[in-house]
Design a protein that fits this description.
Number of strands: 4
Radius of gyration: 15 Å
Order of helices and strands: EEHHEE
CATH architecture: 2-Layer Sandwich
Structural class: alpha+beta
CATH topology: Tetrahydropterin Synthase, Chain A
Distance between the termini: 14 Å
Strand order of the largest sheet: 1-2-3-4
Largest sheet: 4 strands, antiparallel
Shape: elongated
Number of domains: 1
CATH class: Alpha Beta
């Protein structure tokens, strides 16, 4: 089994509706994101997937999140944009763009502050 990871980041505002504390107020973070892809078969060049393709998909997805109010995005109108829900959202978005019969998005990890992470993954199936 092979695993690749690519890191990126985005900046955005959010607030946690129903939360009893300061995060109920609008505020922002500089989120770090790491995506992990897995697969068991390399291509003819000896790669699981070209890092350039992964980075391209990440760039497109980050455009949707970067410098916006996450609470106003359709995906977070009824769901709090917590780190956990952002990781799940990114997993679904990136899986749609990157999964194939040979590799798949295994896990997405989101860090909203240094030392705190939330990860989302599903069963390892294509």
């Amino acid at each position: 089994m092979f695993e690749l990871s690519v890191k990126t980041h985005f900046s955005a505002a959010h607030q946690l509706v129903g939360y009893d504390g300061p995060c109920a107020n609008p505020h922002g973070h500089n989120w770090d994101v790491e995506i992990f892809l897995r697969g068991s078969r390399l291509n003819e060049l000896g790669m699981l997937m070209d890092f350039r393709e992964i980075k391209g998909a990440l760039r497109e997805t980050m455009k949707e999140l970067d410098h916006v109010d996450l609470n106003k995005l359709p995906s977070f109108v009824r769901t709090n944009p917590t780190s956990e829900n952002i990781a799940r959202y990114l997993h679904a978005s990136l899986a749609g763009a990157l999964n194939s019969g040979h590799h798949w998005v295994h896990k997405v990890t989101v860090c909203e502050t240094p030392g705190t992470t939330a990860s989302y993954w599903e069963d390892d199936c294509v």
